[in-house]
Amino acid sequence: MVVVTAKILEIPVVITEQYPKGLGPTVPELGADGIKKYSKTCFNMLTPEVERELQAVPERRSVILCGIETQACIMSTTLDLLDKGFDVHIVADACSSRSQVDRLVALSRMKQSGAFLTTSEGAILQLLQDSAHPKFKEVQKIIKDSAPDSGLLALFQNQNPLFT
Hints:
Belongs to the isochorismatase family. The chain has helices spanning about 1-10, 20-25, 50-55, 70-85, 100-110, 120-130, 135-145, 155, and strands spanning about 15-20, 35-40, 60-70, 85-95, 115-120. With about 160 residues, the chain is an alpha/beta fold. It has one domain (about 1-130): Isochorismatase-like (Rossmann fold), CATH 3.40.50. The protein has a 3-stranded parallel sheet. It has a two-stranded parallel ribbon with strand order 1-2. Helix 4 (about 70-85) runs parallel beside helix 5 (about 100-110). It is globular. It starts with a helix and ends in an 8-residue tail after the last helix. The model has no long low-confidence stretch (mean pLDDT about 90).
C-alpha cells in the first residue's frame, strides 16, 4: 500500500534486498515493479548506492521506512538515519519480524531514539495532506481495501508499557 501510493504520488522509493540470492527477491505483492532494487548483505540499507540517492536530494530530510526484519534492517537503518539528522517515520503495520517480541522491542527502541511510529494509512494521509489533492481519489481506492490484521492492536491495548 505504501509503495504503490508513493509511486502514484511520484515520491522516490528506494528498495534494498537483504541477500536476495539466498533469501529471495522482493515479493510482487508490494507493487515494487519498475523500482530499482539494491542488493546488500549488511543490515543497514545505507549502502554507498543508497547514500548517493539520498545525497542527490539534499533538501529531503524526512524518510519513511517499512520492511523486514524490524529488529535488524529497519532498526539499523533508522538509527543511522537519525544519527545523520533525518526525520524517520516507521510504518509499523508494514514492518515485520519472525518474532512479535523482536518486532515490539525494535519499534519501542526506535521510538525512544526519536523515530515516529505511524501506520500505512496514517503515512499515506499525511503525504496527501488534503482530500482536495489531485491524486486523492486514486489513493483512496488503495486505502479502502481492507488491510489484514498486523497483530499490533493487541500490543497497544491496556497501555502497553513499551509504548507509553
